[in-house]
Design goal:
The complex is a heterodimer. By secondary structure, chain A is mainly beta. Chain A has one helix at about 100; strands at about 5, 10-15, 20-25, 30-40, 40-50, 55, 65, 75-80, 85-95, 105, 110-114. The termini of chain A are far apart. The chains are: A mainly beta, B mainly beta.
Chain lengths: ~110, ~110
C-alpha cells in the first residue's frame, strides 16, 4: 500500500530533551515536507526537501532540523524542544512538488512538550 | 506570499442537505492549483477535490463540487446530500511552488 509512515503517533516530552519524529514514504516521491498544525492557523510548513541532500526552510523553521540522506526518509529533529512546539505535526510527500498532485500525508504526530 | 482565507471557523448542516464552505486566496500568478482536504477526527488528511486554475470547468467528485471564480480568487466547496461521515475539519489550500493552507472550517452534520 502506498503510504507515508510517521512515528510516533503521540509523544509527550520535557523541555530540552532532544527528540526525532520519523517519516518514511514508499512511493519513490522526490518531494517531502513537514508541517505543523495549530488551531486557527491551519498547517504551516516547517521544512521541505526536493530531493536527497536538498532541504530548505519553510515558514516556521526555528527550533527544527531535518535531513534527507535517503529518498524515502525525512526525519524531523527537535534538538531542544520548548512548550511552544507543542503541536500536531504532519509529514507529507509528493512526486515532484505539491502543486499538481497535492500531498500524501502521514497520520500525524501529536507532540506535547511540558 | 500567497495567503488563503477561510472565513467560517465553524459550519453546521442538517443531514441530507447541502452546505457550502468558503475560501479565498491571494495571488498574482495565473497558473496554480487549488485543493480541499478533509480531516476527520482520525486526523488523517484526505484529498477531497482539486482544481487547476487554467481550467474554467469546476471540478466535481461525487457529492463534492467547487465553485471556482478565478477573477474573484474564490474557491468554495459544496457538499450535497450531507452525510454524518462528512463531519470533519476542511482545509482549503493553494499550491504553486509550495502549498499554503487556510485556517480550516469545522463542519458539523446534524442527524
Amino acid at each position: 500500500e502506498a503510504q507515508v509512515t510517521q512515528n510516533p503517533r503521540y509523544l509527550i516530552t520535557v523541555t530540552g530533551k532532544k527528540l526525532t519524529v520519523t517519516c518514511s514514504q514508499n512511493m519513490n516521491h522526490e518531494y517531502m515536507s513537514w508541517y505543523r498544525q495549530d488551531p486557527g492557523l491551519g498547517l504551516r510548513q516547517i521544512y521541505y526537501s526536493m530531493n536527497v541532500e536538498v532541504t530548505d526552510k519553510g515558514d516556521v523553521p526555528e527550533g527544527y532540523k531535518v535531513s534527507r540522506k535517503e529518498k524515502r526518509n525525512f526525519p524531523l529533529i527537535l534538538e531542544s524542544p520548548s512548550p511552544n512546539q507543542t503541536s500536531l505535526y504532519f509529514c507529507a510527500s509528493s512526486p515532484s512538488g505539491p502543486f499538481f498532485y497535492g500531498y500524501t500525508f502521514g497520520s500525524g504526530t501529536r507532540l506535547t512538550v511540558v | 506570499a500567497q495567503t488563503v482565507t477561510q472565513s467560517q471557523p465553524e459550519m453546521s448542516v442538517q443531514e441530507a442537505e447541502t452546505v457550502t464552505l468558503s475560501c479565498t486566496y491571494d495571488t498574482s500568478e495565473s497558473d496554480y492549483y487549488l485543493f480541499w482536504y478533509k480531516q476527520p477526527p482520525s486526523r488523517q488528511m484526505i484529498l477531497v477535490i482539486r482544481q487547476e486554475a487554467y481550467k474554467q470547468q469546476n471540478a466535481t467528485e461525487n457529492r463534492f463540487s467547487v465553485n471556482f471564480q478565478k477573477a474573484a480568487k474564490s474557491f468554495s466547496l459544496k457538499i450535497s446530500d450531507s452525510q454524518l461521515g462528512d463531519a470533519a475539519m476542511y482545509f482549503c489550500a493553494y499550491s504553486l511552488h509550495d502549498m499554503r493552507f487556510g485556517a480550516g472550517t469545522r463542519l458539523t452534520v446534524k442527524p
